[in-house]
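Sequence in, structure out.
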Amino acid sequence: MTKELDYGILDEMGFEYKPIGVKYSMAKPEGVARLDRPLALCELFREAQENGPFYAIKEDIQCGDQLLGMTDFPPVMYSGALGPMFSMFKTPGANRRIYDYVPHLPKDSVTYIIHAPTDQMDFDPDVLIFTCRPNQAEIIMRASSYSDGKMWQFKGTTCLACAWLYAHPYLSGEINLSISGMGYSMKARHVLPDGLVFIAVPFDQTAMLLDNLRDMEWEPDWLTMGREKFIEAVSERSGALYKTLGFERNR
């Protein structure tokens, strides 16, 4: 594995929880230890935030290994019977429906999954996962569309919520966002406090995101001048622009 991008700009954001790079591999990684106890997929990036880099194989993942293509969903999951049992869905049919659209990696395409904080990575990640406060999330998401103007779109489900952080961005090329406390298993396992923002960035969006973070203004004066001054400044600036372009303002 090699690292080509510079992630140093992320150190300047003051994250309480370190951004985590995730790498999928069929080759055993060198220079990194194996996870020392079984954890659910939704707990793995938290483990890396607390204890640094590691790799895991299917035997190390208590829940969510199907989303990595390491194993198949068992019949009892496909049946939807677990949904009503755990108060996630009203009927088995409602639970069953999610298996037609929840993303997962192709079977046997991943043998090892590597996690590392960005300041300890020796690879460019397949998925970069942020855990942040809303004000930090605003900066990251603004940077995500700063240079191309693309619309934000977020997807998720009550159960298998980790699919939308680990599989969906990697397969779709789309950045996804979730909130701690929304994923059922993660909430039950008390992985992180409620109300934090998770942002998962796929490999083909990472370079642009980092470039835009280096280029753009993180906290423009417009956001801190207060309501009245902002309204006054908008009126003044937009009025001048209308005049320059030869348009009349309606309001």
